[in-house]
């Protein structure tokens, strides 16, 4: 008897815990005699390229991957079924819709289900594919924790732990050299990583995308810690933070198929602003960057990712197409993908973490 095929895709930025999801799907599927799991290399690219790159996944292939960072089937945030980069006759890169080709190949390969592991952009693709008839299940993945349909996304807590450790290390350096250290962390539109790391690491200032900062307010909050001979301070800033009336720092990349505005320079801009305002202490900047995405996922994220993987395949069995796994403490549930991407998970001005930050004297640049 020919087995049914389920295709796993990991898209967008890599994230601690992706491999744990893949492993969990494979292990749960092998308890069913009529299913087998396949992976598409580099998101949907493995299915869309002229020479397809797919791999059959079994217990042997996924053995011991649950504690590894990254994803064994690769990922990308370029291209995709609806925006495939091609060179036109003039030698310019343009994009074309290859979704019909993708549906044709899924049918030819007898793939009956797709599990798409990714963030809001990837799940927007999931919704489009579902509307075209693909039997698809979504699994939420983002270190930014910016999907509102789930209490938490895997990889987020590991990223917070990495950022907190960075703050801890910079505190001792700042104290030793009597400097102000600025740590720039990820967070395009949501400041969850920055806010948690600032509170956990005991930073004096935390700047997030949701609250445009006033440089005068920051200078005032730093004054007691920047004028003395042995004073120092630590600032955590999200890459998407911006001053009041200003824009986020970054540029439009030229790589074919890459649509996102590239955030870069928030920490260095803040350092320049502080120096322009006459802050006496020496200011240094550290950009944590992709270190937040890599490495071994902490135990919490491994458990969360594994639970997501098991639930995702059970949603396949239940034919809950067009839905995404979500964690609603203490349960793992399914929600419509359309609803999952409808509302962004911003840090609300009345959030308890904001209250906590203010309560311990952290300046938010207001």
Structural write-up:
The chain is of the alpha/beta class. The protein has two domains: 4-154 and 297-329, Rossmann fold (3-Layer(aba) Sandwich), CATH 3.40.50.450; 157-293 and 348-359, Rossmann fold, CATH 3.40.50. The protein has eleven helices and 15 strands. It has helices spanning 18-29, 45-48, 99-108, 120-131, 156-177, 192-201, 215-226, 266-276, 299-317, 337-340, 352-359, and strands at residues 4-10, 35-40, 54-57, 84-87, 93-96, 111-118, 136-140, 179-185, 205-207, 233-238, 250-251, 262-263, 282-287, 323-328, 331-336. A seven-stranded mixed beta sheet has the order 3-2-1-6-7-14-15, with helices on both faces. Strand 14 (323-328) and strand 15 (331-336) form a beta hairpin. The chain is elongated. The model has no long low-confidence stretch (mean pLDDT 92).
List the helices and strands and how they pair.
Layout lengths: L3 E7 L7 H12 L5 E6 L4 H4 L5 E4 L26 E4 L5 E4 L2 H10 L2 E8 L1 H12 L4 E5 L15 H22 L1 E7 L6 H10 L3 E3 L7 H12 L6 E6 L11 E2 L10 E2 L2 H11 L5 E6 L11 H19 L5 E6 L2 E6 H4 L11 H8 L7
Parallel strand pairs: 1-2, 1-6, 6-7, 7-14, 8-10, 8-13, 9-10
Antiparallel strand pairs: 2-3, 4-5, 11-12, 14-15
Helix pairs in contact: 1-9, 5-6, 6-11
Which key phrases capture this entry?
366 residues; Rossmann fold; four-stranded parallel beta sheet; 21% strand
